[in-house]
């Protein structure tokens, strides 16, 4: 790992973010969509809805948020789906469209670290693009504590793998 002054393999210091990029309205058939990338990590988010009806065991007096995680390969991250759902339920104004479901599909295009924060940023951008009423905008970032006790902001996959601890904010 690198100290705050040292440059890593990608040329960044421990406090520098990787390049960020966000483009909205990237999918034609979705009600809202966004592409978000942090360095080589890239996520596509699509919003469909609100559509009439809520999911089973949901409150019909409020809107329901459904998150579907589609990995590039491998297993679906149910934990990420749950975290995203809770985060998005907290920022969406759920009583504007009661008894409806809004579906957010997260497609992982490439994972080079900080995947969950990238997905949160993409989902929030897609909700804005869809015109879903929000209390506020959510932004997310991660950092890790390296073996040499330095914090590394926005770690890539290699940095995440050699970490002592990882935190999402």
Automatic annotation (TrEMBL):
It comes from the Eukaryota. It is found in: Nucleus. SUPFAM superfamilies: Ribonuclease PH domain 2-like (SSF55666), Ribosomal protein S5 domain 2-like (SSF54211). GO terms for molecular function: exonuclease activity; RNA binding. One of its GO terms (biological process) is nuclear mRNA surveillance. Belongs to the RNase PH family. This is Exosome complex exonuclease RRP46 homolog.
